[in-house]
Design a protein that fits this description.
102 residues, three-stranded antiparallel β-sheet, binds zinc ion
Length: 102
Amino acid sequence: MNIINFINRFPDESSCVEFIKNQRLQQGVICKRCSCTKQYWLENKVAFQCASCGFRTSIKSGTVMENSNLPIRTWLLAITFISATKKGFSAAELQRQLCLKR
Ligand SMILES: [Zn+2]
């Protein structure tokens, strides 16, 4: 996917959330507390909720985004940059392109 495809495919944060949510559902979301695999999606919390114990799993939990406050769209854009560039993308270049401080 190149940057133009990215902009069309992911025009805003909610389209990115939707994408990650579906990816995670395909792989299966497992409750950390009781290992139940039946999960409900909580739209307003941007998290999954376990059907048996009610434990919530954030959409970023268990992914590279886990300890990050960055929008999911920024992550997807970063991944797109890295995969769209044949020669590879340095961390510094990524930071510059995404206007990130660190
Ligand atoms: Zn559970």
